[in-house]
Recover the amino acids of this structure.
C-alpha cells in the first residue's frame, strides 16, 4: 500500500507535467516536470526510522527526489513552543512526492530585489517540520557526501518551497542534498517564563534552532538509506541561514552531526562579538507579548489559533528602555537566545574558549550589501561627515587612504571603502577564529550582478549568489547567458568539492587559498574568478584592524 500526501500539498506534486508560476505578466511554465508514475532511479522503497518511503525521479532522471518527509512530530496543540519530538511512525509505503507546507509566515510573491524565485510559495501550516532529499545514488550502499541547506529570511520567513533552494543542481554533482523547514517568527523564537519552567532543560525560545538540530539528527540517523555518507555532512546557509550555521557550530547539541560549514553573508567580527539575546530578556518580551494578546499564561496562548497569534497588535506608544516594544506593540524578537542549553554562551565566547564544533568553514560576502550599492548616493560632504562619526580621531587616516574631491569620487570611494571594510572584518573574523580552531577557513567576495531589468539598480545584492552556488539557475526566468551558466558551474563546483573534501579546490578551477595560506587574500567569485587582496592595499587592512581593535 502506498500512502499518498494530504490534499493540502497536492498543488506542489511532481505528477504534473509543468510547474506554472505566477509572475507580474501572468503564468509561465518554469520547467517540465517528470510524471510521478515513472520508477525512480533509487530502486525499491527506502526505509527510515519512521517507516518506508518511495520517491520520484528528478528532472535529470539520474536523480531520485523525496519530498515532504517528516523529521519531527507536528508542533501543534500542546507541542507548540516545545522542542521538536520524534516524527510519528507509519505503516505501508509513504509516497514522498510533494513539498510540505511552509511554516507560519506571511507569503509575499516578491519583494525586490528578491523576485519570485527567492520567495516562499504555497500553503502555510504549523504542521511544517518536513524535509526533502535529492540523491544521485542507485542503491543505499553508495556513500555520497551530504549537503544540508538552511534557508535565510531574517528568521521570520523562508521555506523549502523557495524555488532557488531546489537541490537538483548540486545533486547532479554527486551530492545528496537535503533541505528542511524550521519554525520562524513568533512560532519559532518565543520565550516565556512558563515555557522555561515546563521544559526539562529549563529554557525556552530557540525552537527554530532546535528544529535545525532535530533535522541534522534525522539526517545523521537516516541519510545512509538514501546513499548518503553520515560521516561527510556539510551544513550551509545564507543570511539568517548563515547565522544558523554559526549557531550550530557553537551548539553542543549539534556536536558530531556535521563535518563542514558554509556561511554565505556571512561572517564578520560582529559574529564573534555579538552578545546574543539573554534568556531573561526574551522571556520578558514573551510575557509582554502574551499579555498584549490577552493570554494570562502560556496555556491560554497555546489555546489561541495561530492566526490570532501572528495578527498585528494595536499600535502602542514606545516605552523608554523597554525591549521588544514599539509602534506595533510588544513583539517577539526572531533571533537565537543564549539559553544555557542550545547556546550555553554567546557564539563569540564559545569560539574564544575553543568549545565550538571545529570544522572546515567556507564563508563570504556580496559586493552590493553592507553599505555598498550600484547607485551610491554619497556626496563629498556626507562621506566626510560619516567618516568623522564612524572613525572619530581615525577619520583623518581614513580620508588619507580614501581621498575624494568630486561627487563621482565620493560615490566611488563610498563603495570601495564599504567593500574593503566588509572583506577586512570577514578576514579579521577568520584570523580570530584561527586562535582556537585547527581547521581551515576559505573566504570569498561575490561580485556578479544577477541579470534582469533591475540589474543596474541592485547589482550583486544580498542573496544573489545563491542560485549560482546551488546551481539552480533553472528555477528562475531571468535572462541568463552562457556566462551565467559558466559562473554557476564554477561556483557550484567549489561548493561540491568543499562538501566532498573540506577543500573547495579541484581540477580545472582557479586555486582558492585558505586564509593564512598566503598574504591577506580572499577569493573573488563572479565576473572574474581569482584570488585578490582583502583590501586594495595593506595599509587599508591595517586601518580597519585598528578600527576593530578599539
Amino acid at each position: 500500500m502506498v500512502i499518498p500526501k494530504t490534499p493540502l500539498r497536492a498543488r506542489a506534486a511532481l505528477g504534473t507535467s509543468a510547474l506554472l508560476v505566477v509572475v507580474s505578466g501572468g503564468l509561465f511554465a518554469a520547467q517540465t516536470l517528470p510524471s510521478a508514475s515513472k520508477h525512480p532511479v533509487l530502486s525499491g522503497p527506502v526505509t527510515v526510522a519512521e517507516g518506508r518511503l518511495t520517491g520520484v525521479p528528478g528532472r535529470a532522471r539520474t536523480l531520485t527526489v523525496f519530498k515532504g518527509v517528516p523529521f519531527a512530530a507536528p508542533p501543534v496543540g500542546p507541542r507548540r513552543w516545545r522542542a521538536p519530538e520524534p516524527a510519528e511512525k507509519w505503516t505501508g509505503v509513504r509516497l514522498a512526492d510533494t513539498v510540505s507546507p511552509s511554516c507560519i509566515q506571511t507569503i509575499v510573491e516578491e519583494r525586490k530585489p528578491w523576485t519570485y524565485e527567492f520567495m516562499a510559495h504555497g500553503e502555510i501550516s504549523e504542521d511544517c517540520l518536513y524535509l526533502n532529499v535529492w540523491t544521485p545514488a542507485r542503491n543505499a550502499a553508495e556513500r555520497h557526501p551530504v549537503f544540508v541547506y538552511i534557508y535565510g529570511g531574517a528568521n521570520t520567513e523562508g521555506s523549502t518551497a523557495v524555488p532557488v533552494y531546489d537541490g537538483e543542481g548540486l545533486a547532479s554533482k554527486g551530492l545528496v542534498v537535503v533541505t528542511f523547514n524550521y519554525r520562524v517568527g513568533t512560532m519559532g523564537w518565543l520565550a516565556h517564563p512558563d515555557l522555561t519552567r515546563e521544559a526539562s532543560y529549563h529554557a525556552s525560545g530557540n525552537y527554530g534552532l532546535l528544529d535545525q538540530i532535530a533535522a541534522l539528527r534525522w539526517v545523521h540517523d537516516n541519510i545512509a538509506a538514501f546513499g548518503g555518507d553520515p560521516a561527510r555532512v556539510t551544513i550551509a546557509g545564507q543570511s539568517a541561514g548563515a547565522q544558523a550555521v554559526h549557531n550550530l557550530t557553537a551548539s553542543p547539541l549539534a556536536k558530531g552531526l556535521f563535518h563542514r560549514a558554509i556561511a554565505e553573508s556571512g561572517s564578520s567580527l560582529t559574529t564573534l562579538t555579538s552578545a546574543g539575546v539573554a534568556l531573561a530578556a526574551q522571556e520578558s518580551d514573551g510575557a509582554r507579548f502574551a499579555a498584549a494578546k490577552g493570554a494570562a499564561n502560556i496555556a491560554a496562548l497555546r489555546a489561541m489559533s495561530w492566526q490570532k497569534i501572528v495578527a498585528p497588535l494595536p499600535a502602542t506608544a514606545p516605552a523608554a528602555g523597554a525591549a521588544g516594544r514599539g509602534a506595533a506593540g510588544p513583539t517577539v524578537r526572531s533571533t537565537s537566545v543564549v539559553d544555557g542549553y542550545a547556546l550555553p554562551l554567546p557564539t563569540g565566547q564559545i569560539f574564544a574558549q575553543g568549545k565550538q564544533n571545529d570544522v572546515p568553514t567556507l564563508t563570504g560576502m556580496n559586493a552590493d550589501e553592507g553599505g555598498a550599492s550600484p547607485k551610491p548616493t554619497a556626496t563629498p560632504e556626507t562621506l566626510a561627515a560619516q567618516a568623522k562619526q564612524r572613525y572619530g580621531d581615525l577619520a583623518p587616516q581614513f580620508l588619507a587612504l580614501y581621498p575624494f574631491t568630486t561627487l563621482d569620487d565620493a560615490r566611488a570611494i563610498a563603495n570601495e571603502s564599504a567593500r574593503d571594510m566588509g572583506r577586512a572584518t570577514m578576514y579579521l573574523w577568520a584570523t580570530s577564529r584561527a586562535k582556537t580552531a585547527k581547521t581551515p577557513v576559505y573566504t570569498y567576495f561575490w561580485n556578479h550582478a544577477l541579470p534582469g531589468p533591475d540589474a543596474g539598480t541592485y547589482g550583486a545584492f544580498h542573496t544573489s549568489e545563491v542560485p549560482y552556488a546551488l546551481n539552480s539557475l533553472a528555477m528562475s526566468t531571468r535572462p541568463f547567458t552562457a556566462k551565467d551558466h559558466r559562473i554557476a558551474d564554477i561556483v557550484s563546483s567549489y561548493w561540491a568539492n568543499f562538501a566532498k573534501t573540506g577543500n573547495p579546490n579541484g581540477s580545472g578551477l582557479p586555486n582558492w587559498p585558505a586564509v593564512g595560506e598566503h598574504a591577506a587574500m580572499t577569493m573573488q567569485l563572479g565576473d572574474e574568478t581569482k584570488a585578490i587582496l582583502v583590501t586594495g592595499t595593506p595599509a587599508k587592512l591595517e586601518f580597519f584592524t585598528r578600527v576593530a581593535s578599539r
